[in-house]
Structure formats: C-alpha cells, structure tokens
Amino acid sequence: MxxxxxxxxxxxxxxxxxxxxxxWTGGRHGRLMIHRCRSCARYxxxxxxxxxxxxxxxxxxxxxxxxxxVATFTVNExxxxxxxxxxxxxxxxxxxxxxxxxxxxxxxxxxxxxxxxGMPVEVLFEQWDDVxxxxxxxxxx
Amino acid sequence: MGAGxxxxxxxxxxxxxxxxxxxxxxxxxxxxGRSGFELTVEACLRAxxxxxxxxxxxxxxxxxxxxxxxxxxFSGAGAMQVxxxxxxxxxxxxxxxxxxxQLGPVMDAALAVAAGVANHVVCFRSVWESTAQQGGTxxxxxxxxxxxxxxxxxxxxxxGAMSAANxxxxxxxxxxxxxxxxxxxxxxxxxxxxxxxxxxxxxxYREPLTMDDYLAARMISSPLCLYDCDVPSDGAVAVxxxxxxxxxxxxxxxxxxxxFGAGAAERHTWDQRLDLTTMGAHDAAASMWEQTTIRPADxxxxxxxxxxxxxxxxxxxxxxxCAHGDAGRYVEGGERIALDGExxxxxxxxxxSGGRLHGLGFLHEACVQLWREGGERQISKEIDLAVAAAGxxxxxxxxxxxxx
Lengths: 141, 404
Hints:
The structure holds 2 protein chains of 2 kinds.
Chain A: E1 13-14, H1 21-25, E2 32-37, E3 43-44, E4 59-64, E5 67-76, E6 88-95, E7 98-107, E8 120-128, E9 131-138
Antiparallel strand pairs in A: 2-3, 2-4, 5-6, 5-8, 6-7, 8-9
Chain B: E1 18-25, H1 36-51, E2 60-63, H2 79-85, E3 92-95, H3 104-114, E4 120-128, H4 129-132, H5 138-143, E5 148-149, H6 164-179, H7 183-197, H8 211-216, E6 219-221, E7 224-225, E8 234-243, E9 255-261, H9 280-289, E10 301-304, H10 309-318, H11 327-331, H12 350-354, H13 360-370, E11 385-390, E12 397-402
Parallel strand pairs in B: 2-3, 2-4, 10-11
Antiparallel strand pairs in B: 1-8, 1-9, 4-8, 6-7, 9-12, 11-12
C-alpha cells in the first residue's frame, strides 16, 4: 500500500460488526475513521451506537488526521502466528484529535529499539482482503 | 492504609449470612490425560465431602465461564453438566463469563444463600488446557482456530496481540515508564510463588528459581519474561458457599464472606481506561471496601491473581496495601510478602508455580490458610482475615474472608 512498507506474510483479521465496518474499511480511501459524537463533539473508540460520555445516539465515523502518539508499547518476542514472526512492536497510540481515544496497533517501518512512549507516529494501511488494517510508523522528521 | 480506600459501611450488605464451609481440588498438573469434566466432578465431590455435606444437601451450582470454551480446555464443564453428573436437585444455578471475573459466580452464590434462595452452593472453576491442547502450545491452538476473530480479539488479533501476555505487557510497560518498576522488583512475584510452591505437594513447579534464572529468562512480551507468565495446566477447584443458618454442626467453623468487590467504573476494554497504570482491579477493590469497616491494614494474607506477575502487583495497590505506583517498592526484596513476612502472598505458589487453575484457587488457598490446613506452607502466625482476588485488565473481582 505504502512505499517502503513491507507487509508481513500473514495477519489475523477482524470479524467486524455493523458498527466497526467503517473503521476497518476506511483505509480503502486512505482515511482513518473514528466514531465521533455530534452532540458533544468528542471522539470515542471502539465504535458504538451511543456516546459513552453524553449518551447521545447521534454518532458516526469521521476521518481524523492519522497522527498519533505512542502511549505505551510492548516488544513481542514469542511466536504466536505463522507468517508473523517476532520481534514486533504492539503499541497503544492516542490519536492527535482526542488523546483519550486509543488504538491498539503495530509500530512498523523502524527498528524495534527506536520505539518509545511519547513517540509521534502516523497511520498507514495494509490491505488484507476486504480489510484495511491501520498500523503506524514514525512521523518523518 | 493505602490511598483511595473508601470508608466502609458499618454492616456489610451480606451481614455475615454467606459462609464458606468446604473446599476441594482435583488432581493438578501438566498433561494429566484426564477430561476437564472428570476433574471438575472430582473437585466438586471433594469439596462437598470436605464441608461434611452429601450431594443431596447441595441445592445450588455456579461456575465461570460456563460450558463453552473460547479455546481448547478453557472450561472443563458447565454448571448443568455437573448438575446432571451428580444428580443434583437445585434451587438456583449459574454459569457465566460475563461477571466480575473468575470469582464472580462465588459472589452470586453468596448473594443467593444470603437471600435464602439456596442453602449450599457448589462453585467451581476447571481448566484442562494442558491436556486439551494435546501437548501443543498456545500458539498451536491459535493457529488451528478461525482467522477472523471477533469480540475483544477484533481489536488485538490483527496486530499479533494474540495473548494476554501482550495486553498485560502493554499496561505493565506504561507502569514501568511512569512509576519506575524494576525487573528485580517484578521478579519478587515469581520468586515468592516458587518458594511457596516448593512447600505445596500439589504445585506444578517446585524446583528452586533464583533471581539469576529470572533475569536470564527469555522475554515473552516486554517487560514480561517467561517466569512472569503462568502455563496451561489441568485442574479443578470447588468451594461450597453456604447459608450461615444452614452451616451449624458441619466439620469446621465456617469462614465468613465479609465483602466482595464487583465494581466496574470504566469502559470494559484493555486499552481505553483513562489511567493505563490502573486496571479494573482498582474499581472492584474500591467497591469491596465500601461494603465493610475492615481496612487493608487488617488483612493478614493476600491470595492475588498472578496469571501474569504484574497483575498481582496491580491487585496489591488496587486493594490499598500500598499507594498507587508503589507496588514495586512494596514487594522489593520479597521479605514483606514471604510466608513469614508481614503480609504473605500466594502461599500455595500462585498460578505461576502452583498451576494455572484460573482464579478460584486463590479463594481455596485463603480458606486453607484460615483453617490452618496448609501443612508445610501454613503461615505460622495467627491469622483471621484473607483477601482473594482474580482477573486482569477490565476483568476483576475480589473477596474478603474471615474466621471472625
């Protein structure tokens, strides 16, 4: 999908729902789609039919910038899946628009040792069948 | 007293009406080659006999997670399988995973007997992951499952975050960053468990484990190494929860369920909790202390979930034994949590060394210690108050038990 990015041989895929389909397919158009409340204007994740803060049901997905910050990460050293070999970085990132909104994801396209809490990252998408998996990489300096 | 412990009610909502009268455990081990159903029935029959009851006295049955297994061997049996196998005639039953962790059905049973709905409820938890995975690994089990995953796995599996080791590793890493937890401090959970397991004939791992062994072990998911993770085991645990008014004349003095914590104050996810260095444990513990005037300083022994070592640290601070962020310093050196220490931890060896019995083993051991039946691992000083806790991430439940 993206220059310089090498996809692993294999990923598990999401059995997505009515609410989450937009999140997993927004990458088709290069967009990271996050649910937002049109009543209180706050974002939230995972997608749901109501805003957990103000309980409005006037909610829906909106494109965000794709910029985020690493809130925490772990270096997985164990082989869980064929075609997805360790070591790899699993991270929780906070989106720029709403730091309380976090995504569990991978930090890719950099050395494992470069990843740190507070690191600015940006989204890129890997296409797998009908799913565009949002992963992150360091923001280009 | 630790920070954030709410002041409690003068009288617990249970009013002492729910008690533990018996405990039982099946054979425990790696690759026992027996079915989870068989191990479950063995543990239940032992617990019923241990209480001085007969199967005909049992009028309730409760279990976590119920009959269905998300992975091979995660559930040995459902409530109604045991009902059928033992020919029970019940007034109340429950089998569910959507409760306050692995101890949730015990809390529900306590409410049932306190309300007078049932007299004696057999509560059980059984796993046979070691045998059901047929000698393979968790990775083998994952590979044989479907490629599309839903539920909470929808948000983790596409990123190779297949195991709770990853989810716990993420949260532990932030705690290390914010609060300065060292590997040597974290190691005290695994080392303490192993020392205690060496005194427990049922424990799975009993050979000595040193700090050097720990520090040299391979990493699984940073900061968790091999010895921070429990391993699939086979075994079942059962406890009998009785109505106090029905517990007269049984084998032993009943153990009172003083209070339980089932609170859930934030979103039920691993990654959206506002403070990533706390867990559902904090909410559950806070709701437990609201039910009682007993305070953390009164507690003699801690039997805390250690499916991953870091979870025991979370429970220590969540329960108010130290301030938030101080759990590493609390266990530093290991003396405080040793069998002869100020507040012993996981006296049977926890799940790390005792075996992954998945939750109910902690309540079992709390009762064993209060009844002074721990054999070589019995705490020598006088004790009358223990806490058992189970769960990690958003999953959490805790129970305070006493001989008072």
